Each structure stands twice: as structure tokens, then as C-alpha cells.
Amino acid sequence: MQTLKIVRTAISEVVIVEPHVFGDERGYFMESFSHETFAREVCRTVFVQDNESCSRYGVLRGLHYQLPPYSQSKLVRVVEGCVLDVAVDIRVGSPTFGRHVAVELTDDNHRQLFIPRGFAHGFVTLSERAVFQYKCDNYYSPDHEAGIAWNDPSLGIDWKLADGDIVLSDKDRCRCTLQEAPLFNYADDLYGA
């Protein structure tokens, strides 16, 4: 029996992973990750670091990414609460450049979102509190971190909250627009294969 269902989004490289949840009166069990399934059906990469954040209602973290040679793919999920998770294609020359995918991730739906290298990533907390976990296939490098303004009008992202409810870090308040940001080239092999 297949324990992980792979769902392609409007941007084919951004993938929703839906685990099969086995539940009964005791609770539930699910396989949240399989390297073999992931390599075969999504991307041949190796996750090297797991991170977790806890955020209150309205906290928006993003839109973040790292530049080569420290670009990262992420596989993200929510273990408590609800977030709107967003991936933006920032590969110049891509047929989907500047477009985004937005997916609600909750502790009830158990969905995960794969954000490949060459994409900016962000999420906003829609519940009172959310615990957010993510796997990364490269280590954090402060010298290579970059970001785009969450409210860049050219992106057209509906964050599902009023602007006055959004809570940002000082760094995320000062992000540049997509037009001003350092970006990726669609023709580059970001996985070094």
C-alpha cells in the first residue's frame, strides 16, 4: 500500500505530499517521509537538517531563500495549528516565473509542501499558534540568505489576513521587491547533478 500520495500543483516542481493516516480510537499513525518514495517521485535530494518554529497568530515568516552554493529545498509541515504556506518561482526564464503556489497546512490535514531550490518560501500563521517543521537539503548560511517583500504587488499573494494583523520581523519588514532581488537562472542546475 502506498503510504505517501504525491500531488502536483500548478507549478509542477512544487509538490504536496499527503500521507496515508491510519486512525482509530487510540489516535493515528502515519509515515511522514520515505527517502525512497521521495527520490523516485519528487526529487533526488538528501535532507541534512530539520528545523522547527513556533509562531502566534498573524506571524508571517518570508519570503525567504538562500543563493548558491547554499540554495535549499524544503519539505515543510505543520504539527500544531494552521498556516498558509507559499512558494514563489524566482527562476528568471522559467515559464512560471513570479507565480506562486499557496497551500493551507494544518495539524488535521497532515499535508506537506515541497519547495524546490529556486523558489522563495514563506508562511503566515492562521491559527492562535502554529508549530511548523521543515527539512532542508542544505545548511543555513547567513552570507547567502535573501528575501522578497511579502506584500510585493507583482506577486499578488492573498495571505488570508488583513495587513494590520500581519506580524513581521525587522528583517522581513525591509525586504526588496522581486524586481530588485537577486534571483536564480532557470537554465542553471541548482542540484549540481
Q: What is this structure, in a nutshell?
A:
The chain is 6% helix and 42% strand.
Question: Could you characterize what this model shows?
Answer:
With 193 residues, this protein is mostly beta strands. It has a single domain, classed as Jelly Rolls, CATH 2.60.120.10. Helix content is 6%, strand content 42%. It is built from 2 helices and 15 strands. It is globular.
Q: Strand tally, please?
A: 15
Number of H/I helices: 2
Q: What general form does the structure show?
A: globular
Helix content: under 10%
Strand content: 35-45%
Roughly how many Å is the radius of gyration? 16 Å
List the helices and strands and how they pair.
Layout: E1 4-8, E2 15-19, E3 21-24, E4 27-30, H1 35-41, E5 49-56, E6 60-66, E7 74-80, E8 82-89, E9 91-92, E10 100-106, E11 112-115, E12 119-125, E13 129-136, E14 145-147, H2 170-173, E15 184-185
Parallel strand pairs: 9-15
Antiparallel strand pairs: 1-2, 2-11, 3-4, 5-13, 6-12, 6-14, 7-11, 7-13, 8-10, 8-12
What key attributes describe this structure?
five-stranded antiparallel β-sheet, 2 helices, single chain, Jelly Rolls, 193 residues, mainly beta, globular, 6% helix, 15 strands
